[in-house]
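Trying the structure run again after the queue cleared.
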Amino acid sequence: MPDSDNILFAMLKKEIVATLQQSVPGISLAIETWKGQEIVHFQEDLAQKVNGRISEKWFYTHIKIENNKLPRIDILNLLSKYAGYIDWPDFKLKNTQWITEQSRSDVTEKSPFTERSRRVWLLILIPVMIIAFALYKGFGPSSFQFCFVDSDKKQPITNQPIQIVLLNDGESPVYKQCENGCFSIKTTRQKIKFIVKTPYYKTDTITRVLNSKFNMESINLQTNDYALMIYYFSRSKRVDWEKRRKQLDIIIAENAQIYQIYDNNTGMELYNKHEFINKLTMPVKSLKNVEVIETIYTGNKISVLRFRQTLN
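Done. Tokens:
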């Protein structure tokens, strides 16, 4: 058959696939690979839609085996009618323009689709896209939020910096800062583990099994009483300083390392326990308005203290 008839028959086979997919959505896209039940589906659909019959032998002769001989005109008319056209001449008329354009661009080896075929493809693809989106929502990352609450006052902790250290198996820790006392994360993991660090509350390690149905949770934090004590001592009037010295002596370890951090990265100063107590409690002193940055405990005593001085 002429080259143009070869191309037209290839086009018709593609439209036959698109037509059968309306009745059998899971049918293979390559008609040449059909066999057994797939051919039966085609025979039944052809009989139902255009009252036509083809044998399995004809299918193997003209479809599965490459054959340069064009099928009989009555079969071509039948197949064209099945694909939505009046007959084979109507199919040729409506698709010849496409062949001419393709010949100019020398892309005759590609499988062409008519506007009708594209509409059929859209009808197939839209449900697939909806299902894919639903699967993404079901198995894609989910958002979770954890907000922190003072365990004694039962009030949100919103006036302090809160650092989150994410702990993932086989990965280095990831550091994040909370906003307005809450920490948000989007993940596909089934479990999350993180450390909560804030100056005036005890450091805590949180482990949660995640459930997308319960994506918000409040977590209680215990106050860091010793850090608060140092904070208030530095801001109060210098009375009962001997009593305060004794209290500080109790809560700070003998070999504690105490660091004063200066703003703008200008350095730091190291104190031992007794130097720090003296500066914090003596009637005439230069150390005041202490803002605790971090405390580390050994047993029930402070072994490491980092702080800065503020103007207010």
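The longest helix spans residues 115-139. Worth checking whether this holds up in the mutant runs.
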